[in-house]
């Protein structure tokens, strides 16, 4: 790591003022940032330690659960209200990383963790996301873990956060603070598609601080679940994952929201798959139709074509659980 | 009855040091004024260094030196005879032989400053397109010259005739990927010079080899090089050979005039310590109607480097294990722009996997139970050398293993066994590995005037239990209690020992300890029978036994005298050093049984149950031996289901040089493992009936897992690892 | 480090400029609040195993490197330096974390416990004793991290079944392959600590 200056911020406003300088960066848990800095993927002259800011509480109010941006993954995962009302969120958090990292990592930092694409993570290799215009070796190289939907000819890296997949399915809103004041960003618009600017990853502006995440509490959210498929039992990023919110009446699907991880450069909400379910009985034909709708526009590469059937199977597996639990 | 010191499940004698953090591994050595080195690695796989800009790094804070091929001292290339297998030393010229080859070394006063400065070294290359894909260059395969590990084109009998006479022939192609050791402790060198005297704290499986290599590299006398390795954070072969970073660290320490510590980063370890080379294997195995093998033809093609062509994935089990009159084993090499392969835990696992998987395929063709097929081809003889094994209870292993596993309840039809949410498969295979057949080791036994013994040998304990079992062996021979014996290792000032490798520690070092302890005991007996005041005065030495810290008459155990009394009257210590005697080769074997669960939707394979029964001669310590066995089984889970190092085909670089992309098993991947031993002494053993064992238990298990996957699904996944994408492709 | 050498202090300043060249930016932000920033080194104090250690440290020094290279507590191990192996696990205010993924300067004022702080004199902690009894290690390199995770695992109450122990001990890799023995060790320690 290159040397940097360090400041511990005690108020959000002060942190935001300090971070107006483009050479500054926030550090909370540090669990991804320090790796990126050790590897030379990111260099920052000034780290602003926000871990002591009073943004670590979890509250239920006004039909929402409000998660402080600095609450730790482990705390949120076992929070009673979260477990009861947003099971998919608790499950996604517990499926992430290791017990130690979950004790360190903040929710805000989790959303901002960067792709595990090996070409991105090694600064001596080309990567459009890290160094615009340098090329993408994954397109013709090793792309087993890469995107099958939502990628571009500039980048097919996948977003690694399980939390972000769950929050996308839950229609959460990210609350922020910047010099211009507070604002709210819906999850649907929080991550930017790679297009020809894969280095622009989120809607956040320079120095904008995530202060919290609001999750609506609904009947739909109470019946939610998360499935993570990986190459070892645990402590691994998703090969594919599914966050599913489904409300049934009898056999019929009344409401559904589906988001997927491991298949796209950002958490992938599939309204096409949702539409294939809604108003239909939750049977094999419906599930197959939803899977087909999900991958209709898939563009697999040499080594990741298996994700096309795998993500459909994962969807079928998780929807089957709803059928059985009915 | 005196209490036997071997065989008991003694707790590790280094246990307290390891659970309190007191055990000092190489990077923990306290060396006054130590500075830190960081390597700069080549980012191209083939070509030349055209320029190195060291100005920024040299001017960076705390930097003591920046070394490239232009200013590093010329060093002599140590020889393969001292286990320096790599045939070039980096940072000596501008040639790039593989990606991740050191091109510069930065030394600074703190680790952070060395790391930052290493990022300021600018290296320019003239790169050439590398060739790194084995499948693309199979046409370039050749048979390298023979090495110590046997002929690369081995023939016995007439394979064509054997295949022609067969009732059934299984023809298969198996492929295994590049894999890495990933010992939790990355390789470490801490080098300190005092004039022409060099002291090195090294994470090595062979301090003697390290000492010899450093002597050669710097032209030093033996007494001027001391290598220390009291604790080792795993090795698995990574630390068996001597590698360039050790020599380079000593070189820069000399040039900056300060002690230097180098700890390889995890990523650097992927190109600095060798790896298990990718293999492509073709097998034809023929059998008569009754299952007796008529022929085995096994052609293994594996990756080697541009500068070395040692083949480490030896087809040993094909040549040795089964009674078969007609065998041809051909081992071919394909040169690629990659680092050299090397030893990785149980190197014969790759070939064992293909052989044992093919036998399973053959068992289905013949309609014969796979256990029965193996029993019918059992042999008490090493089929390659023609010599009888010292002992072989492999048939008993099959029998007991099948019983413990419940094999008789198996429905052999693939896909026939299921549980609530998936497919169940049962598979088995033979575990077999040579143990020893390597140089011997020396040990010194010193018996003090207080009647306690100190034993020293320049060996290592990489977690296998050397500290513990050598103390047990010494205590047993001397007739002392464990607490009356101390065993020290890991210092090249001690009598030289063979490397901790090749399952040779028990037959090599153990035998050295037994010989030295026997001679020392005999001298104490001689004192006791010669002393007129001793209760044993006048007895014939061969009528005296030892045990529980005493010497006594074998026929009248009540006539006894303590070591302490004999030595106190003697008033001087007794010291005996054994000669190194070549360690005989043993063959440690076993039978392994595995149950897998396969998720038919997601394709995930989970190992649910494992049973292993092993014959390694007498078991010196049931606790450490069992741990070796479960360790091998867990490695087999990784080998078969998740571990593969990926190399970018265009850049020629490893893209998974870490522990997040390269997946070693985690705790939740591993079920309970049932391990038992035949535990009958091998009369040919020089170490109280024990054979080497470390490498045996990983072999067999990999094929047992694959065979179980076939039994569960009806599909053979012949390309490892068996990841879910391959399962769902097969099931679709 | 030889911080008493005045010429070296000068070198540090030059070094900051060199770093700035690499990143094309001066080291300090031009904001009033930044006056409190730790620029090159600062005197920080870390409370480890009940003992306060005062160290002159750069902000970039991780807790792991501070423990090992500065304070001399080498029981905590570095296996990957990327949070992927768990060998560096320590407790901070009773919670297990990976010490390679945090800065020492961020852990001031907290109670840090390392493997050296588990035993009380010669009396081993029940987790340590259980690891010895069940042969929960071979080479011992991952062991300090396993032990710290095991202590936390028991305190967290994640020892209800062997499967639960397996899951909650999976943030610590063991390459020798001791997992079943580690599970047995944690199971036994949990029983003794209840």
UniProtKB/TrEMBL annotation, chain B:
Gene Ontology molecular function: iron ion binding; oxidoreductase activity
Annotated SUPFAM superfamilies: CO dehydrogenase molybdoprotein N-domain-like (SSF54665), Molybdenum cofactor-binding domain (SSF56003)
Alphabetic keyword roster: Molybdenum, Oxidoreductase
Gene3D superfamilies referenced in this protein's UniProt entry, alphabetically: Aldehyde oxidase/xanthine dehydrogenase, a/b hammerhead (3.90.1170.50), Aldehyde oxidase/xanthine dehydrogenase, molybdopterin binding domain (3.30.365.10)
Keyword Oxidoreductase on entry: yes
Aldehyde oxidase/xanthine dehydrogenase a/b hammerhead domain ranges (all copies): 20-129
Protein name, as recorded: Carbon-monoxide dehydrogenase large subunit
Organism whose genome encodes this protein: Nonomuraea glycinis
From TrEMBL, chain C:
Keyword presence, Chaperone: no
Domain of life: Bacteria
UniProt pathway annotation: Alkaloid degradation; nicotine degradation
Translocase listed as a keyword: no
Keywords of this entry: 2Fe-2S, Iron, Iron-sulfur, Metal-binding, Oxidoreductase
One Pfam family linked to the record: Fer2
Chain ranges of the 2Fe-2S ferredoxin-type domain: 42-118
PROSITE patterns attached to this UniProt entry: 2FE2S_FER_1 (PS00197), 2FE2S_FER_2 (PS51085), TAT (PS51318)
UniProt GO molecular function: 2 iron, 2 sulfur cluster binding; metal ion binding; oxidoreductase activity, acting on the aldehyde or oxo group of donors
Entries under Gene3D superfamilies matching the protein: 3.10.20.30, [2Fe-2S]-binding domain
Cross-referenced InterPro entries: 2Fe-2S-bd, 2Fe-2S-bd_dom_sf, 2Fe-2S_ferredoxin-like_sf, 2Fe-2S_ferredoxin-type, 2Fe2S_fd_BS, Aldehyde_Oxdr_Iron-Sulfur, Beta-grasp_dom_sf, TAT_signal
Alphabetized SUPFAM superfamilies for the sequence: 2Fe-2S ferredoxin-like (SSF54292), CO dehydrogenase ISP C-domain like (SSF47741)
Entries under PANTHER family matching the protein: OXIDOREDUCTASE WITH IRON-SULFUR SUBUNIT, OXIDOREDUCTASE, IRON-SULPHUR BINDING SUBUNIT-RELATED-RELATED
Protein name (Swiss-Prot/TrEMBL): (2Fe-2S)-binding protein
Organism expressing this protein natively: Nonomuraea glycinis
């Amino acid at each position: 790591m290159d040397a940097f200056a360090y400041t511990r911020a005690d108020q959000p406003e002060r942190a935001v003022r300090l971070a107006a300088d483009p050479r500054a960066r926030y550090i909370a848990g540090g669990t991804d940032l320090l790796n990126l800095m050790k590897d030379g993927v990111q260099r920052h002259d000034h780290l602003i330690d926000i871990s002591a800011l009073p943004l670590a509480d979890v509250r239920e109010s006004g039909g929402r659960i409000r998660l402080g941006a600095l609450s730790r993954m482990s705390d949120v995962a076992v929070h009673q209200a979260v477990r009861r009302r947003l099971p998919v969120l608790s499950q996604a958090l517990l499926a992430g990383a290791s017990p130690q990292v979950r004790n360190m990592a903040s929710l805000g930092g989790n959303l901002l963790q960067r792709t595990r694409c090996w070409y991105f993570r090694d600064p001596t290799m080309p990567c459009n996301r890290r160094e615009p215009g340098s090329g993408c070796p994954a397109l013709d190289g090793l792309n087993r873990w890469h995107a099958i939907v939502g990628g571009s000819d500039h980048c097919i890296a996948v977003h690694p956060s399980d939390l972000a997949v769950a929050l996308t399915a839950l229609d959460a809103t990210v609350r922020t603070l910047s010099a211009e004041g507070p604002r709210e960003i819906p999850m649907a618009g929080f991550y930017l598609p790679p297009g020809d600017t894969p280095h622009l990853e989120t809607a956040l502006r320079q120095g904008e601080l995530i202060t919290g995440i609001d999750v609506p509490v609904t009947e739909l959210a109470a019946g939610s679940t998360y499935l993570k498929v990986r190459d070892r039992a645990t402590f691994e990023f998703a090969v594919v994952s599914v966050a599913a919110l489904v409300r049934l009446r009898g056999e019929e699907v009344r409401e559904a929201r589906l988001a997927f991880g491991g298949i796209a450069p950002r958490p992938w909400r599939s309204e096409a798959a949702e539409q294939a379910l809604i108003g239909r009985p939750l049977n094999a034909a419906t599930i197959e139709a939803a899977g087909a709708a999900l991958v209709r526009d898939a563009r697999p590469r040499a080594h990741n074509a298996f994700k096309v059937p795998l993500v459909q199977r994962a969807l079928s597996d998780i929807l089957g659980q709803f059928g059985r639990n009915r | 009855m005196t209490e036997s010191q071997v065989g008991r499940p003694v707790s590790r004698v280094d246990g307290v040091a390891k659970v309190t953090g007191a055990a000092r591994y190489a990077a923990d050595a306290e060396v006054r004024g130590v500075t830190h080195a960081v390597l700069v690695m080549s980012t191209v796989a083939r070509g030349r260094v055209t320029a190195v800009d060291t100005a920024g790094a040299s001017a960076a804070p705390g930097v003591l030196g920046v070394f490239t091929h232009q200013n590093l001292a010329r060093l002599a290339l140590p020889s393969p005879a001292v286990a320096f297998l790599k045939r070039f030393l980096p940072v000596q010229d501008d040639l790039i032989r593989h990606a991740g080859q050191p091109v510069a070394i930065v030394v600074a006063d703190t680790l952070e400053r060395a790391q930052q400065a290493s990022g300021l070294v600018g290296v320019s290359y003239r790169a050439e397109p590398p060739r790194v894909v084995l499948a693309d260059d199979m046409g370039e395969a050749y048979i390298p010259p023979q090495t110590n590990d046997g002929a690369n084109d081995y023939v016995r009998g007439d394979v064509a005739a054997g295949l022609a006479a067969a009732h059934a022939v299984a023809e298969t192609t198996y492929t295994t990927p590049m894999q890495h050791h990933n010992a939790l402790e990355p390789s470490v060198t801490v080098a300190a010079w005092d004039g022409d005297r060099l002291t090195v704290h090294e994470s090595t499986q062979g301090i003697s080899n390290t000492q010899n290599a450093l002597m050669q590299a710097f032209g030093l006398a033996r007494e001027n090089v001391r290598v220390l390795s009291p604790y080792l954070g795993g090795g698995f072969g990574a630390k068996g050979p001597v590698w360039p970073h050790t020599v380079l660290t000593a070189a820069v320490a000399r040039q900056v005039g300060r002690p230097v510590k180098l700890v390889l980063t995890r990523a650097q370890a992927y190109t600095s310590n060798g790896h298990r080379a990718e293999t492509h294997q073709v097998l034809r195995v023929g059998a008569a109607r009754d299952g007796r093998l008529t022929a085995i033809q096994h052609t293994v093609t594996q990756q080697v480097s541009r500068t070395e062509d040692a083949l480490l994935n030896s087809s040993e089990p094909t040549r040795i294990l089964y009674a078969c009159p007609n065998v041809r084993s051909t081992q071919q090499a394909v040169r690629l722009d990659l680092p050299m392969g090397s030893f990785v835990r149980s190197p014969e696992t790759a070939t064992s996997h293909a052989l044992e998987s093919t036998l399973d395929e053959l068992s289905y063709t013949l309609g014969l139970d796979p256990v029965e097929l193996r029993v019918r081809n059992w042999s008490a003889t090493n089929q390659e050398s023609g010599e009888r094994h010292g002992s072989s209870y492999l048939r008993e292993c099959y029998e007991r293993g099948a019983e413990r596993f419940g094999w008789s309840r198996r429905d052999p039809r693939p896909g026939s066994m299921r549980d609530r949410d998936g497919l169940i498969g049962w598979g088995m295979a033979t575990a077999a590995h040579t143990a020893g057949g390597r140089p011997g080791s020396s040990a010194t036994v010193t018996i003090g005037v207080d009647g306690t013994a100190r034993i020293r040998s320049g060996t290592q304990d990489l977690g296998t239990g050397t500290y513990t079992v050598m103390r047990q062996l010494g205590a047993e021979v001397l007739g002392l209690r464990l607490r009356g014996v101390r065993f020290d290792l890991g210092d090249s000032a001690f009598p030289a020992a063979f490397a901790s490798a090749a399952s040779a520690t028990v037959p090599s070092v153990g035998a050295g300890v037994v010989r030295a302890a026997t001679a020392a005991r005999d001298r104490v007996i001689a004192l006791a029978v010669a002393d007129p005041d001793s209760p044993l005065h006048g007895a014939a030495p061969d009528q005296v036994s030892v045990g529980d810290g005493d010497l006594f008459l074998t026929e009248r155990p009540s006539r006894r005298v303590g070591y302490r009394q004999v030595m106190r009257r003697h008033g001087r210590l007794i010291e005996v050093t054994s000669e190194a005697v070549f360690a005989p080769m043993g063959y440690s074997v076993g039978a392994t049984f595995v149950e897998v669960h396969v998720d038919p939707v997601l394709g995930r394979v989970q190992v649910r149950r494992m049973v292993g029964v092993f014959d390694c001669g007498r078991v010196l310590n049931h606790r450490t031996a069992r741990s070796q066995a479960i360790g091998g089984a867990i490695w087999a889970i990784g080998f078969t289901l998740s571990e593969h190092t990926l190399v970018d085909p265009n850049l020629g670089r490893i893209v998974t040089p870490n522990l997040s992309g390269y997946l070693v098993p985690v705790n939740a991947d591993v079920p309970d493992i049932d391990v038992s031993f035949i535990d009958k002494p091998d009369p040919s053993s020089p170490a109280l009936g024990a054979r080497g064992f470390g490498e045996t238990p990983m072999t067999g298990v990999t094929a047992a897992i694959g065979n179980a996957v076939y039994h569960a699904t009806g599909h053979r996944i012949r390309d490892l690892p068996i990841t879910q994408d391959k399962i769902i492709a097969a099931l679709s | 480090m030889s911080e008493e050498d005045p010429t070296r202090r000068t070198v540090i300043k030059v070094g900051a400029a060199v770093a700035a060249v690499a990143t094309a930016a001066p080291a300090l932000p031009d904001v009033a609040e930044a006056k409190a920033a730790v620029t090159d080194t600062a005197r920080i104090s870390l409370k480890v195993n009940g003992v306060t250690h005062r160290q002159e440290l750069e902000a970039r020094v991780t807790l792991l490197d501070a423990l090992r290279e500065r304070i001399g507590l080498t029981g905590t191990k570095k296996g990957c330096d990327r949070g992927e192996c768990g060998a560096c696990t320590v407790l901070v205010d009773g919670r297990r974390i990976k010490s390679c993924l945090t800065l020492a300067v961020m852990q001031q004022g907290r109670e840090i416990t390392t493997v050296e702080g588990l035993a009380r004199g010669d009396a081993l902690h029940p987790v340590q004793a259980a690891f010895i009894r069940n042969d929960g290690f071979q080479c011992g390199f991952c062991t300090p991290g396993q032990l710290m995770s095991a202590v936390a695992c028991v305190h967290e109450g994640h020892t209800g079944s062997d499967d639960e122990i397996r899951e909650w001990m999976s943030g610590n890799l063991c390459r020798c392959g001791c997992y079943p023995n580690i599970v047995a060790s944690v199971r036994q320690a949990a029983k003794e600590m209840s």
